[in-house]
Amino acid sequence: MSVRRLMGAETEFGISVLGHPTASPIAASTRIVNAYANANLRARRARWDFEEESPLRDARGFDMARGLADPSQLTDEDFGLVNIILTNGARFYVDHAHPEYSGPECLSPYDAVLWDKAGEQIVYDAARFAGAPDIALYKNNTDNKGASYGSHENYLMSRRTAFADIVRHLTPFFVSRQVVCGAGRVGIGQDGSGEGFQISQRADFFEVEVGLETTLKRPIINTRDEPHADPNRFRRLHVIIGDANLSEISALLKFGTTAMVLALIEADAITKDLTLANPVAALRAISHDPTLNTLVELRDGRRLTGVQLQWEYFELADAYAKSRPDESEHETATVLARWHDVLTALESDPMKLASQLDWVAKLALLNQYRDRDNLSWASPKLALVDLQYSDMRPGKGLHHKLVQLGRMETLFDKTQIDAAMVRPPDDTRAYFRGRCLEKFSDEIVAASWDSVIFDVPGERLLRRIPTLTRFEAPKPTWATSWTGARTPNNFWPRWVRSLVPKPRTDDD
User: In angstroms, rounded to a whole number, what is the distance separating the alpha carbons of residues 125 and 391?
Assistant: First the structure.
């Protein structure tokens, strides 16, 4: 049992032009991403390569007809919006009406959180470079006017695992994990018009159990089958149900516990039937009750709270890890311990976690205002506090202020985050992508998750260097491939040799 697997995060940031409610969010997003590109010379030329993307391929065994797809699903088309590649291996671009940061591939939940935090600083710096004090950015998931924007996760899984098993076992986990990693929200319903506070910002926007869409008819389990790896061996689980977390503890548990549950599913080690009678209704019911007392019905007639459902998964993960101590490591043990401690606190008094979990920290702040000013949940002041919690500006964002006051636990310091802004993880293919952009930016025409395209001096044709076969490459492979490479000309043959796949065995 291990929390280590290929994973990463994509975050769409809320954007507002202060004092100009009718201003174009596309124009504002383009302005700040362009500003970051102009401030970082190595990001100017290389474009994103859409050729190998396939957003309409469904894990259930078919491709959606292009004519039936919503335009928001056509992420393989270049709409002319600014799209840059960063030296840390990430992608920073305009996604419809939002700036979006897609972090590099990481091998651990700790790294996934670190490079996600780096993205927060990159987005803030982009607004600063644009000289745009009127543009405010928020790491949240809804404008409380009926629109929602995503914070997605990606996990590499074995192709051998039947997708039906993934759906069956992951659905109750995703429905209940919001009690650990929800971001908290003032308002009930998609437009937030209902009075109250809820655990998740995204829960009210999910309408079906399984589906390919991400912006409409949102499913608990997304079926997009675009592995960005060897499709015969791997699938990429595209998770759209998570909230955007500012808390590093919430984010760590989001990535870490999900990785462990995926390991259980791949090992066929989930021996309990936790199927929910109505997953969509259960998702909303759990979110709408910050007391955590709401019971949701399972298909077998049992009724459990969201915390009790999480305990079921924790016990399975803990037992599996103890049965295979040779497969575990320090990170797994740490995540398991944190998961246990958080669930214990949620059962006794959730407010004990105000320094660890986003939704609890936000609720504690809101209750201070409610008690001081005798406010109802319908008060516009509380909605403003909710929004201000996620403000990316250090002098304005309430989460930032909690951190500055030592009232929010963190995992990484400024030095680590600053390094992750410019350096890629050194144990995934993101290392190659990021370092190539740093060293050979003038020769790189385009790049994607799957390859880097060079315009090599002296070569008549463009050279595409694929990285699919080394998706799981250990650090020595990347380091060896890189050693002595001073120009694309002498780097190219060495890299090609390193890409030759090993002979396939029956165990592969």
Answer: 13
What is residue 289's three-state secondary structure? coil
Q: State how far the alpha carbon of 146 is from the alpha carbons of 216, 348, 358, 478, in Å.
A: 12, 34, 22, 45
Residue position matching structure tokens 């909605």: 383
Q: How many domains does the chain have?
A: 2
The answer to whether residue 70 is catalytic is no
**Final residue in a domain of this structure, among 357, 386, 418:** 418
Q: Which of 367, 385, 418 is the last residue of a domain?
A: 418
239 and 147 in one domain? yes
Amino acid identity of residue 389, one-letter, is Y
pLDDT for 485 equals 53
Please report, for the chain, how many H helices and E strands are present, in that order: 15, 20
DSSP 476-490: HHHHHHHTT--SHHH
- With CA atoms as reference, report the closest residue to 276 among 299, 294, 300: 299
What lies within 8 Å, CB to CB, of 414 at 6+ separation is none
Amino acid (one-letter) located at 495? W
49, 76, 78, 95: the catalytic one is: 95
- Strand order, beta sheet including 234-239: 83-85, 91-95, 98-102, 7-12, 151-158, 234-239
Tell whether 408 is covered by a domain.
Answer: yes
Tell me phi and psi for residue 465, to 5 degrees.
-100, 110
For β-strands 135-138 and 14-17, DSSP reports them as antiparallel
Judge if 470 and 326 occupy the same domain.
no
pLDDT digits (tens, 9 = 90+) for 105-134: 999 999 999 999 999 999 999 999 998 888
The reply to whether 320 and 211 lie within a common domain is: yes
Per-residue pLDDT averaged across 24-52, rounded?
80
| CB-CB contact of 181 with 339 (8 Å) | no
Helix, strand, coil content of the chain in percent (nearest 5): 45, 20, 40
Q: Looking at the structure, tell me whether residues 217 and 259 fall in a common domain.
A: yes
Q: What is the pLDDT of residues 427-476, one digit of tens each?
A: 898 998 898 888 888 888 888 888 888 887 777 788 888 876 554 444 43
Adjacent-strand bridge partners of 464: 453
The CATH number of residue 151's host domain is 3.30.590
Q: What letter would DSSP give residue 81?
A: -
For residue 405, is it left (φ>0), alpha (ψ between -120 and 50) or beta? alpha
**For 359-417, what is the HEC assignment?**
HHHHHHHHHHHHHHHCCCCCCHHHHHHHHHHCECCCCCCHHHHHHHCCCCCCCCCHHHH
Q: Do 464 and 361 belong to one domain?
A: no
Beta bridge partners of 93: 83, 100
Q: Which domain holds residue 30?
A: 7-54+73-418
- Give the predicted TM-score (pTM) of the model: 0.89
